[in-house]
Specification:
By secondary structure, the chain is mostly helical. 28% of the residues are buried. The chain starts with 6 loop residues before the first helix and ends in a 6-residue tail after the last helix. Helix 7 crosses helix 8. The chain contains nine helices and no strands.
Length: 225
């Protein structure tokens, strides 16, 4: 008689496979943080994850497939952390201050992972089958800041959706540049001062967008009923 796997058994097998897959990704992160993308082999990753090489290749057909999964994992981890670390704020100015400070705290706690992420982003850009992932990463980080801003702007009316997107891109460009500077020439005091300068500049930029929109609206001729 043919034996059929029950739904519960299939779910158990699937859950075990997902745990193993995640274990390999975490092991890959540790190996990449130590040896870098170019030098790290799948054998190194399997050893770091505590699995057999055959098990690694069962879940990931190649090193490239695994590296792209690691990048996706880093994107998810970073966006989740940014959302969790940014609290409720009363207005756009305090939202900008809180979200940039929260983002900087997270980035400076995870500098080794940020180096890995930069390496993986460049790796993705060099591959025709993965170049879209770098764009996905950028869009995901923009969306985090944009959603946080829109959550406040929806209550205060200070910015519209397009302006929130513009401010989010400004914030990401600034904090990304400061992160590269900190990685290249570490100086926490200088970087802390630079973050506060970025906050002030972003607040001015956001205020300018809001004021320009209000000015354009005020110049519109009144419509007759």
């Amino acid at each position: 008689m043919e034996r059929r796997m029950t739904t519960a058994a299939r779910e158990q097998v699937g859950a075990k496979g997902e745990r193993t897959r995640r274990q390999i990704i975490v092991g890959a992160l540790q190996a990449l943080a130590t040896g870098g993308v170019a030098a790290t082999t799948t054998r190194d990753i399997a050893a770091g994850a505590g699995v057999r090489l055959a098990t690694l290749h069962y879940h990931f057909e190649s090193k490239s497939a695994l590296l792209l999964a690691v990048l996706e994992h880093l994107i998810d981890e970073t966006t989740t952390a940014l959302r969790e670390e940014t609290g409720d704020t009363a207005d756009i100015a305090s939202c900008i201050r809180g979200s940039l400070r929260a983002g900087w705290r997270y980035l400076t706690r995870t500098l080794e992972l940020q180096i890995v992420q930069y390496e993986l982003t460049l790796y993705a850009l060099r591959r025709d089958d993965a170049v879209g992932l770098a764009g996905y990463q950028y869009d995901a980080y923009i969306k985090v800041y944009q959603d946080i801003l829109q959550g406040v702007a929806g209550r205060t009316g200070e910015l519209d959706a397009a302006e929130c997107a513009d401010v989010a891109r400004f914030m990401l460009a600034g904090i990304d540049g400061l992160l590269l500077q900190e990685l290249a020439k570490p100086n926490r005091t200088r970087s802390s001062h630079a973050i506060e300068t970025l906050i002030a500049a972003t607040q001015v930029f956001a205020s300018g967008l809001s004021n320009n929109r209000k000015a354009r609206k005020a110049r519109r001729p009144a419509t007759r009923g």
